[in-house]
Please model this.
Amino acid sequence: QVQLVESGGGLVQTGGSLRLSCVASGSGFSLNRMGWYRQVPGNQRELVATFTGTATSNYAASVKGRFTISRENAKNTVYLQMNSLKPEDTAVYYCKLTAYERSFWGQGTQVTVSS
Model:
């Protein structure tokens, strides 16, 4: 029904920037119900940023002011612009879409921030 494909991860130095992309394919969903999460091995997956409506979004306290979630409806794509990256931002980043009363996840993209 729905497939999500992330891209844009990589290795960056402290203070650098990356932009992650998540392309959604399928039908019957809204980009308003998409968000970004991240996970470090041994830890639970945590919320990074998510849309809470057409023009509203929510951010984890640790990334507020540094990360920005945005979308391009014509391309069914959600972005995560990450600036001023820190070593503690190192994780696998996943996009999530809620549709059909369930959650869909992408395969994840690795972000590594070197000190």
